[in-house]
From TrEMBL:
This is Rod shape-determining protein MreD. Its main location: membrane. The keyword Cell membrane applies. It is found in: Cell membrane. It comes from Hominiventricola aquisgranensis. The chain crosses the membrane at residues 52-80, 100-121, 127-150. Belongs to the MreD family. The keyword DNA repair does not apply.
Length: 164
């Protein structure tokens, strides 16, 4: 029960930080995606089910507050959480290479998924512009922030597992 409450608080905290503090720190209207970091992290640390659940609630928050299509982000984040959960068996906590590469891939998948749903459905095909001006800069910014935030998420997860 304690683990669920802490994870829910982490989701809310990351959402609030992403919506406020990191919007103020945006570079060229690009800000890091803390929800991807959280979803991917709990996916490869906790497995497919936990990744899907965390992803669903992260995406649902974004859908409720910022989304045009209710459920779009929830589905994308759920798949990202599930996909990262596939790497649970080869996850080694002290090594940053796997988490960094999985979070990078997750951010890229999120950007491409958002492009496919939001832009292609409206017949806007400026893919290379979207890739170079939004997807890749956000990916880079998210990776830089991951270097600082991931260790904190990992320590909280370890603490929650030892308390259980």
């Amino acid at each position: 029960m304690k683990r669920k409450i802490v994870i829910a608080l982490m989701i809310l905290l990351c959402f609030l930080l992403q919506s406020t503090v990191f919007q103020a720190l945006a570079i060229g209207s690009i800000s890091p995606n803390l929800m991807i970091i959280l979803t991917a992290s709990f996916g490869f640390m906790g497995g497919r089910k936990e990744g899907m659940i965390v992803g669903f609630f992260c995406g649902l928050l974004e859908d409720i507050f910022y989304g045009r299509l209710l459920g779009m982000h929830a589905i994308i984040y759920m798949y990202i959480g599930y996909g990262n959960g596939q790497f649970n068996r080869i996850f080694y906590g002290d090594d940053i290479k796997l988490p960094l590469s999985l979070i990078s891939a997750s951010e890229l998948i999120y950007g491409l998924g958002t492009y496919m749903i939001m832009f292609v459905m409206r017949s806007r095909f400026a893919f290379f512009h979207y890739l170079t001006s939004i997807i890749l800069p956000e990916l880079l910014y998210t990776v830089i922030v991951t270097l600082f935030i991931y260790r904190l998420i990992y320590k909280i997860n370890v603490r929650l597992k030892t308390d259980s």
